[in-house]
Design brief:
- By secondary structure, this protein is an all-beta fold.
- It is built from no helices and five strands.
- The protein is globular, with a radius of gyration of 12 Å.
- 15% of the residues are buried.
Length: 85
């Protein structure tokens, strides 16, 4: 699955993003499993070679399981900077 969001926190172990709202013009997908979730936290393990900074908009592929909480944790599979098409 894919989520697009803005990085709001980044440290040596985790990355936290705020998911962006669905937007057809910017090709941001709708994911009903993220309803009511304002922040997502990912392990930074898969980001060791990525030069992301707070404020970047990223597209994150993640496994299907969402561990609810505030922020909720999701296991990332891959990361890329998001570029609106």
């Amino acid at each position: 699955m894919l989520v697009i969001g803005k990085i709001v926190y980044l440290d040596t172990e985790q990355v936290m993003i705020e998911p962006l709202e669905a937007d057809a013009d910017r090709h941001i997908p709708y994911d009903s499993r993220l309803e009511g979730i304002s922040r997502l936290s990912f392990s930074k393990d898969s980001l060791d070679n990525q030069p992301f900074v707070v404020g970047d908009i990223v597209a994150v592929n993640y496994v299907n399981e969402i561990q609810y909480g505030d922020p909720c944790w999701i296991d990332a599979v891959s990361w890329d900077l998001f570029e609106s098409q």
